[in-house]
């Protein structure tokens, strides 16, 4: 079974333009993500980007990259374009703003699909810290008894009218998809729940795609702002 790890990255971030190439302890951020993807040993690694500057850096660090359209509304749409040219059985979406990503999480996301051909999509969760329970930027997920996602929300679901019997689950933004599911996504219009919550994974649920949720560790910090990049520098400095 061929698996392709795809890292979507673009320079035109609203809050932090150029962030894939921000310097973190002597390396551009995208290099940290690439190195984690390679260490996971899940499959071949490719960076998908609409920006020539990112292509140039990928050539320097020795990782395969591909130029994609600039008008994709999501990383999933960008990976769907990649799947038209680069054939694989599974595609793993690793976000390019996760320089502290644990390679084991990439493996945990892909593994259920590699072992069970009936599973068409997978993702990850971690236990949600108490201080993040009411943060709408932290997406929560509820699952059924077989660990398939029932719903994703920016609210702390389930609402604890009675004491929760399981911990609150925080969604981690890694995805694994079979090719046919990934390509179908790009043909579907935005769905009502997706539009309301602004969560693209709900489009899959609304079309009946079951998402297998595995437990991961989660990275210490994703980078959305220059301030977070500075925090990551301090973390990396301590680790090194």
Q: Would you spell out the secondary-structure blueprint of this structure?
A:
Layout: E1 3-8, E2 23-24, E3 27-28, H1 29-40, E4 44-49, H2 52-61, E5 64-67, H3 75-85, E6 90-93, H4 103-115, E7 121-127, E8 140-143, E9 149-153, E10 169-178, H5 179-185, H6 192-197, H7 201-206, E11 212-215, H8 226-239
Parallel strand pairs: 1-4, 1-6, 4-5, 7-11
Antiparallel strand pairs: 2-3, 6-10, 7-10, 8-9
Helix pairs in contact: 1-4, 3-5
Distance between the termini: 36 Å
User: Which CATH architecture is right?
Assistant: Alpha-Beta Complex
Rg, alpha carbons? 17 Å
The best one-word shape is globular
Please state how the strands of the largest beta sheet are arranged side by side: 5-4-1-6-10-7-11
pLDDT below 50 for ≥5 consecutive residues: which ranges?
none
Q: Can you count the beta strands?
A: 11
- Major sheet: 7 strands, mixed
Could you describe the 3D structure shown?
The longest helix is centred in the C-terminal third of the chain and has 14 residues, at 226-239. Helices cover 33% and strands 22% of the residues. The strands form 3 sheets. Strands 5-4-1-6-10-7-11 form a 7-stranded mixed beta sheet, with helices on both faces. A two-stranded antiparallel sheet has the order 2-3. It has a two-stranded antiparallel ribbon with strand order 8-9. It has one domain (3-239): Alpha-Beta Complex (Spore Coat Polysaccharide Biosynthesis Protein SpsA, Chain A), CATH 3.90.550. By secondary structure, the protein is of the alpha/beta class.
In short:
The chain has 240 residues and is of the alpha/beta class. It contains eight helices and eleven strands. The protein has one domain: Spore Coat Polysaccharide Biosynthesis Protein SpsA, Chain A (Alpha-Beta Complex), CATH 3.90.550.10.
């Amino acid at each position: 079974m061929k698996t392709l790890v795809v890292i979507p990255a673009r320079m035109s971030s609203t809050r932090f333009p150029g962030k894939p190439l921000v310097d973190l302890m002597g390396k551009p951020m995208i290099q940290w993500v690439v190195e984690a993807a390679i260490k996971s040993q899940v499959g071949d690694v490719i960076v998908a980007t609409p920006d020539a500057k990112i292509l140039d850096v990928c050539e320097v660090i020795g990782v395969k990259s591909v130029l994609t359209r600039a008008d994709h509304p999501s990383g999933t749409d960008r990976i769907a374009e990649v799947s038209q040219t680069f054939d694989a059985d599974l595609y793993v979406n690793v976000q390019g703003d996760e320089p502290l990503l644990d390679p084991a999480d990439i493996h945990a996301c892909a593994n259920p699909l590699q072992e069970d051909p009936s599973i068409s999509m997978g993702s990850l969760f971690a236990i949600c810290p108490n201080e993040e329970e009411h943060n709408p930027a932290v997406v929560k997920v509820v699952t059924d008894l077989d660990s398939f996602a029932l719903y994703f929300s920016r609210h702390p679901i389930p609402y604890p009218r009675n004491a929760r019997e399981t911990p609150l689950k925080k969604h981690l933004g890694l995805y694994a998809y079979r090719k046919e599911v990934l390509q179908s996504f790009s043909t579907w219009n935005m769905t009502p729940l997706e539009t309301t919550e602004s969560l693209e994974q709900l489009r899959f649920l609304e079309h009946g795609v079951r998402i297998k949720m595995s437990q991961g560790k989660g990275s210490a910090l994703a980078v959305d702002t220059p301030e977070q990049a500075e925090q990551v520098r301090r973390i990396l400095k301590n680790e090194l």
